[in-house]
């Protein structure tokens, strides 16, 4: 699916965005339109939509409510819900607003058009928008394209999105943008020292692998690491059925870094990009890794397995160790890693950890400008003892139930020892309830914030 703006046309229908808290918000409209709006109870409430007819009964203009600043803050992209209520046609923004409001509305309009239609026809809204004056249409379309890629990958069930298919998706992305790709899979993972990727994925019928994509030959270095657990049964610590139902989304970290990589490459940013994805299935078989096993990682650190359902940090650890060997300017990992993060901040916010305060500040700024909310959690050093079991260097699932997201982040940080700047996102990757610009299903989290923050993060 491609999300784009409409081509400019003289027949475009004027579209007015009405802010409810902007004084006499309707005063800029022609008098007949003001009368029509008042008669129909239109006052600019968030998501309100009203078509104003001409004397001959045709669509003369359309009004969309932006609500109050408080309402917009509570429901980002809320105004674009009107897209599905507008009759078919090409619309052009006719009212003036702040750059933030205009850009957010334009991006939300594009994202509202997404439908996952691989298995069943899904009707998309037929109203089209000409790119508003002052917005970078190419950039917004590129961002929307990356989000489409992420959503499609997450929404695809594991039967059609295992390690093989995830690798194929990376290969297609690499081919489209002139990137290079290499893959280490199966027993070769042991030969080339990725023992934890192999251990987690060895019980599955589809071979585990480490996917490595590179792009760009100038500028600062950025390495993205995405958790690619294509399905997670929990292993021998088997999940109950209710918890297993959404586990096709457990490769949401990989899907999100691939969507971000697509944005970076399509925009031609001057940086050297590396994407690492450990792609596995956590399955149950006679050769599955067991509770009580002690694994030796690529870094040489030993890990006691106290829960086979805490597998994501194991495959990420080997990939992070590889990333760290090149000491890039910045390493970012993204993963649907812990239920603790979801409980702490819910499905909308992207919790993140940063070793440098300036990087955290840049991400907060990027989140605000891109309408992609994030929230910083701490690498809390006093909890380091919780991930040290004594019998091995590290514990993959500390007992007690406290600070589950923080201890997982501390675990991952142990594998980034030579690269000073490391950011980790513990995302949910799924929208449980349909919302404007965010249909129910897979969703990218943190990618837009990262993209907007890159100029500050890497001095681009």
From TrEMBL:
GO CC entries: cytoplasm
Please tell me whether the keyword Oxidoreductase is annotated for this protein: no
Cross-referenced PROSITE patterns: CYTOSOL_AP
Which terms does the record give in the GO molecular function aspect? manganese ion binding; metalloaminopeptidase activity
Q: Which UniProt keywords apply?
A: Aminopeptidase, Hydrolase, Manganese, Protease
Name the InterPro entries for this protein: Leucine_aapep/pepB, Macro_dom-like, Peptidase_M17_C, Peptidase_M17_N_1
What CDD domains does its record include?
Peptidase_M17 (cd00433)
Gene3D superfamilies xrefs: Leucine Aminopeptidase, subunit E, domain 1, Zn peptidases
Q: Which family does it belong to?
A: Belongs to the peptidase M17 family.
Q: Report the protein name in the record.
A: Peptidase B
């Amino acid at each position: 699916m491609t999300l784009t703006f409409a081509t400019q046309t003289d027949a475009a229908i004027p579209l007015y965005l009405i802010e409810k808290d902007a004084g006499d918000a309707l005063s800029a409209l022609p008098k007949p339109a003001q009368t029509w709006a008042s008669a129909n109870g239109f006052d600019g409430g968030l998501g309100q939509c009203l078509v104003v007819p001409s004397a001959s009964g045709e669509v003369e203009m359309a009004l969309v409510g932006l609500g109050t600043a408080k309402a917009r803050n509570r429901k980002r992209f809320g105004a674009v819900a009107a897209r599905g209520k507008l009759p078919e046609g090409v619309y052009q923004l006719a009212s003036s607003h702040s750059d933030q409001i205009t850009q957010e509305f334009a991006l939300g309009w594009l994202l509202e058009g997404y439908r996952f239609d691989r298995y069943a026809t899904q009707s998309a809204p037929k109203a089209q928008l000409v790119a508003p004056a002052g917005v970078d249409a190419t950039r917004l379309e590129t961002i929307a394209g990356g989000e489409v890629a992420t959503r499609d990958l997450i929404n695809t069930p594991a039967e059609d999105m295992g390690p093989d298919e995830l690798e194929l998706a990376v290969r297609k992305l690499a081919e489209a943008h002139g990137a290079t790709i290499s893959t280490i899979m199966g027993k070769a993972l042991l030969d080339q020292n990725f023992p934890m990727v192999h251990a987690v994925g060895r019980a599955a019928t589809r071979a585990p692998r480490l996917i490595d994509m590179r792009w760009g030959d100038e500028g600062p270095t950025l390495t993205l690491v995405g958790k690619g657990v294509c399905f997670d049964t929990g292993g021998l610590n088997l999940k109950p059925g209710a918890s297993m139902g959404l586990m096709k989304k457990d490769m949401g970290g990989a899907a999100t870094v691939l969507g971000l990589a697509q944005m970076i490459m399509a925009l031609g940013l001057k940086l050297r990009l590396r994407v690492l994805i450990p792609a596995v299935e956590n399955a149950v078989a006679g050769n599955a890794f067991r509770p009580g096993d002690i694994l030796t990682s690529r870094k040489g650190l030993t890990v006691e397995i106290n829960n086979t359902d805490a597998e994501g940090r194991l495959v990420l650890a080997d990939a992070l160790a590889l990333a760290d060997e090149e000491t890039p300017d910045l390493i970012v990992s993204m993963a649907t890693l812990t239920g603790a993060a979801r409980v702490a901040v819910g499905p909308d916010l992207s919790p993140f950890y940063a070793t440098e305060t300036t990087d955290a500040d840049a991400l907060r700024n990027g989140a605000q400008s891109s309408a992609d909310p994030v929230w910083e959690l701490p690498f809390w050093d006093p909890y380091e003892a919780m991930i040290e079991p004594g019998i091995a260097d590290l514990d993959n699932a500390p007992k007690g139930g406290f600070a589950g997201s923080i201890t997982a982040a501390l675990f991952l940080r142990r594998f980034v020892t030579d690269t000073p700047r490391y950011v980790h996102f513990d995302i949910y990757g799924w929208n449980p309830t349909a919302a404007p610009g965010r249909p129910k299903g897979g969703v990218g989290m943190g990618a837009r914030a990262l993209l907007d923050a890159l100029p500050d993060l890497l001095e681009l």
